[in-house]
Amino acid sequence: MWKKLSAIIIPTIIAAGIIAYMLLSVWDQLLVALQHFVPIYLVPAVLVCFLAWVLRGVRYKGILETLEVKASLAVATACIFISQTANIIVPARLGDLVRIFILNHEYDTPMSTGISSLVVERVFDIVMVALLGVITIPFVVNVPQWLILLVVVPLGIIAALFLVLIAFGKIRTENHYVLLLLTMLEEIRKASLNVRSLLQFSFVSMIIWLLDITVCVFVVLMFDQQVILPVVILAIVVGNLVKAVPVTPGGIGTYEAAVGITFQLSGMEPALAYIIAVTDHLIKNLATAAGGVISIYYFGDWVISILKSAFNKELKV
Description:
This protein is an all-alpha fold. The protein has one domain (2-315). 79% of the residues lie in helices and 0% in strands. It contains 13 helices and no strands. α3 (42-66) runs antiparallel to α9, α4 (73-89) packs antiparallel against α5 (96-107) and α9 (195-222) crosses α12.
């Protein structure tokens, strides 16, 4: 029992500690920054956030179709909402397992196919985010070396993955576990390494991340700040690349710290940088949670037992 609880409690404490340290260290300046709050920008930020989630559903539906899973847009979007809501609560992106369970329940989809769909989605997300970073860096002054490496290294890792996908077809084995891995690699290759998929998923992924950046632009305006667009883009790129490492539930704390530090590199005051980072992530997480609750009602009570089953099985490891 303690092992299960500590797997959730410890990362949550880390996340809370990071946020508390950030905000308390600039508390006086933070109170001043809040006086410039312009609430009118909150509405478009939320609307754009939900639009991005719908496009995520469109993309995931397309990914499932390439894997011969005929899911509706509602089911595809609801799967993402529920799994990402779970990721806000539990560490190590264990919420992604929920999506695999739901697909199996709705369409009798093998676990390997569910995992493959997640990998394809993540690959396109990381590639598009990193590319935005590479494009943006030349327009931002005084970018440190570590930040450049943070943006470039993921592209190298994805390139290596694609080389593996191209070469793996020559491998033959009778080992059950290796065969399972090869099956997943074949599904990933099928879903991502063809012209139509590359163009379609790359385009939709880029729009998704531009919308995500737009949410942060509205948050910047919400606190009456004038920041050049490349800085906002770079902040979101860095925040999401850091968030991809599952240190805390939903990247809470690590995301805010990364976004805040990036804004400070452009000369923004720490208090404003942190409050913008916290507000940006809060809006996105609340929109996710709202969509997750609606999606649970959409599927019905059975999804609650699947959530419990997924977490209990994984937390035993």
